[in-house]
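ok posting inputs for the guanosine-5'-triphosphate job
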Amino acid sequence: MSPEERYHRIKEHLAEENPILIEVMEKFEQLDKTGHETGLLDRSETYTSDISWWPLISILGTFSTGKSSFINHYLKSDVQISGNQAIDDKFTVVCYGPNPAVTTLPGLALDADPRFPFYNINEEIKKVDPGEGNRTNLYLQLKTLKSEHIKGKILIDSPGFDADSQRDAILKMTDHIINMSDLVLIFFDARHPEPGAMRDTLEHLVGTAMEHRDANKIL
Ligand SMILES: Nc1nc2c(ncn2[C@@H]2O[C@H](COP(=O)(O)OP(=O)(O)OP(=O)(O)O)[C@@H](O)[C@H]2O)c(=O)[nH]1
Ligand SMILES: [Mg+2]
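and the output
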């Protein structure tokens, strides 16, 4: 995507969701111009991609801990299915969209969406799971909803981590998501102390959180 196309597409989204930032976007265009003229910034690049224009909030944790219920409650809409056994098997990115009904799109749609900082998500997923063909849709889906509660932000719901074969890939994706996020909420069920099977997963999550350079963005 060229810088001009990116300006255009981000502005279109900002006009819908957060018009006050359009002015800031224009300052970035001026900064890019200086960058391009002085050669500090490659002509194909733009400083607008260094900024999270849409704060990213990710909800992580072990299965059946109320992650999806929390998202539904926060958005006042039944966006996600909840239930008392493992429900979600992929990451769901929730953002604003024009359709009145909740709309589900395959993960690949994120590649073309300038709001989402998973730039080249394909490449990231290949590192995690080098299987045949494009695996993005196995790990990610996108849901859009027309609601004031989601405007100007992006939420990520995650699969409940359990001890299945995809666990390693999911944990690596999780590390990537923690790095990109502005706020990370880690859920666990305080009523049912962890019996053991999930211990290494929780240790991974909490360990990653504690050692992270932005540890205070993780709750
Ligand atoms: N008592 C109580 N139950 C809750 C609460 N939040 C969620 N639940 C119930 O816990 C179960 C699991 O909720 P989900 O929202 O599906 O949990 P999840 O973390 O998204 O689960 P996975 O997608 O499978 O990882 C459901 O039966 C919910 O109704 C809560 O705050 N209190
Ligand atoms: Mg869920």
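notes: Strands lie at 56-61, 91-96, 103-106, 140-145, 154-157, 183-187. Residues 30 and 36 are 10 Å apart (CA to CA).
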